[in-house]
Amino acid sequence: MTLVSLPWAILVSTCLGTSMAQTVTQSQTEMSVQEAETTTLDCTYDTKDSNYYLFWYKQTPSGQMILIIRQGAYKQENATENRFSVNFQKAAKSLSLKISDSQLGDAAVYFCALMENTVRQATGRG
Ligand SMILES: *[C@@H]1O[C@H](CO)[C@@H](O)[C@H](O)[C@H]1NC(C)=O
Questions:
Q1: DSSP state at residue 19
Q2: 88: Cβ below 6 Å to ligand 1?
Q3: pLDDT (mean) for 26-32
């Protein structure tokens, strides 16, 4: 088996803007994963809203932002998109991203983002 190191760069995020009550936090900074392995990226958030959407975006080395997966706060099941799935824990305000069967092309910066339905603002930076 070929061992390939996939560097992830995920920086701690803080709230963008001035008067927003929401925060999105990604505690992991960089992860190395072997090809074909499964990995999990953590994200916690805080909001006073009860209705919101959560997103995981991937920024490719060329700078392109790609939406990977979206989770609605009222969805009764975890969103799944091909090799990507989330573990959404609404009470704990956590949305981890699971990447199965890791591939070289997964090496990227991953952003967790929150959009409150009422104010329609997005935040999150990783
Ligand atoms: C997502 O999956 C986890 C683990 O199976 C489960 O604990 C959690 O309740 C699920 N979340 C939703 C919104 O179904």
A1: S
A2: yes
A3: 88
